[in-house]
Design a protein that fits this description.
alpha/beta; Spore Coat Polysaccharide Biosynthesis Protein SpsA, Chain A; about 20% strand
Length: about 270
């Protein structure tokens, strides 16, 4: 991964406000829920705009509503076209052009992490670059996924509730972004769709990932290296799990209590 070429960033902001947050906000889209007088997505854009590693920024979501609510600068607003994977592929093509495979990496990030900072983004990118270099040099790995330890998460957000997974190295919660090679999604689209479809089907997921994977997970013997190996073997993706110290990457606003916590934190900021 070159240290010179800026990384394009794609913000996913098309989720309608039909879940738990609808009870505390009448905004039609989650990304536009107000926090301290600004839409939630605005804080994510602040962090991206100030990050030296980030180049062009695209936003997949309701174009008219986003344009009316945001102070759009050089960002490209992209209309959603369907499912999560449809929007991801469409957004990547719109932002990078049909020659997207020529760009090294794309940072895909959700719009519901208003506490994320420029420092957190830069730290994640730098850790990805180091891991890529260790794996054999720039471009050796296809995708990078951040994980935050339970200790870091609870130290930063003692009243927050996250979903954790126990690995051999410790207990972690997943981040809300991924750094990937744009061509990975295009090459492995059918397997991505299968994995998304089976995310709530343990039996089907076991068939996809292998019984040994599930047994190790249940016995808490699964390691980060095991996950990387299975993803490589089953999905054809040379991925890396990246432990990060910034809990803000793992804190998404999807419940009223999360929104309340974010409002208190940003009022203090």
């Amino acid at each position: 991964m070159s240290t010179k070429q800026p990384i394009a960033a794609l913000v996913l902001a098309g989720a309608p406000n039909r879940g738990p947050l609808a009870s505390v906000s009448d905004s039609p889209y989650e990304a536009l829920i107000e926090i301290e007088g600004r839409p939630m997505i605005a804080y994510v854009l602040d962090a991206l705009r100030q990050a030296p590693s980030i180049g062009p920024i695209g936003i997949v979501g309701p174009v008219e509503e986003l344009a009316a609510a945001l102070d759009v600068k050089d960002e490209q607003l992209i209309s959603p076209v369907g499912s999560l994977l449809d929007n991801l592929e469409h957004g990547a093509r719109a932002l990078l052009g049909e020659g997207s495979a020529g760009r090294e990496r794309l940072l895909v990030i959700t719009s519901d992490i208003p506490l994320v900072t420029t420092e957190a983004i830069e730290d994640f990118v730098e850790r990805c670059r180091r891991r890529d270099k260790e794996a054999g040099g720039p471009g050796s790995l296809d995708a990078f996924y951040p994980m935050v330890s339970r200790e870091s998460s609870e130290a930063r957000f003692p009243s927050g509730r996250r979903t954790y997974v126990s690995l051999r190295e410790g207990v972690y919660t997943g981040g809300n972004c991924v750094l990937l090679s744009p061509e990975v999604l295009l090459k492995q689209r059918p397997l991505f769709e299968q994995a998304v479809a089976l995310r709530k089907d343990p039996v089907g997921m076991a068939r996809l990932l292998g019984l040994g994977f599930i047994i190790k997970f249940l016995m808490r013997r699964l390691s980060a290296a095991d996950i990387e190996r299975v993803v490589r073997q089953k999905l054809g993706i040379n991925g890396a799990i990246i432990p990060v110290p910034y809990a803000e990457i793992g804190f998404d606003v999807d419940k009223p209590k999360d929104l309340e916590l974010a409002r208190r934190a940003l009022a203090g900021r």
